[in-house]
């Protein structure tokens, strides 16, 4: 499934997950004295996280690109809130 995400038409859900993961990895080093890993390592981490997200989507919904019904998504959000 292709989506338009913030003006970037043609991105897949996997692309969005990878971009979000990369943002998180880079943000985790913000304000730290720890040196960033090499760019290729950060990119590899991001794609690994994206693949893990896709595998979890497939486990939960049966198809990696299938969007959950609104009720299922609401239940997932509620379960996440309880787990916090």
- Based on CA inertia axes, which overall geometry fits? extended
* Overall pLDDT confidence: 78
Tell me how many strands there are. Answer: 2
Taken together, the total number of domains comes to: 1
What about the largest sheet? 2 strands, antiparallel
Approximate helicity band: 55-70%
| Helix-strand string | EEHHH
What is the topology, as strand order, of the major beta sheet? 1-2
Cα-to-Cα separation, first versus last residue: 31 Å
Question: Number of DSSP helices?
Answer: 3
Low-confidence stretches: none
Q: What is the strand content?
A: 5-15%
Spatial extent as radius of gyration: 15 Å
Structural class: mainly alpha
Describe what is shown at a glance.
This protein is mostly helical and 84 residues long.
Topology overview:
Blueprint: E1 2-5, E2 8-12, H1 13-27, H2 39-61, H3 70-83
Antiparallel strand pairs: 1-2
Helix pairs in contact: 1-2
């Amino acid at each position: 499934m292709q989506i338009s995400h913030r003006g970037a038409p043609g991105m897949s859900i996997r692309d969005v997950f990878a971009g979000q993961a990369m943002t998180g990895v880079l943000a985790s080093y913000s304000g730290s004295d720890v040196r960033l890993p090499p760019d290729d390592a950060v990119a590899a981490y991001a794609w690994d996280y994206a693949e893990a997200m896709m595998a979890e989507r497939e486990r939960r919904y049966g198809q990696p690109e299938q969007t959950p019904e609104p009720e299922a998504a609401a239940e997932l959000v509620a379960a996440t809130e309880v787990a916090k």
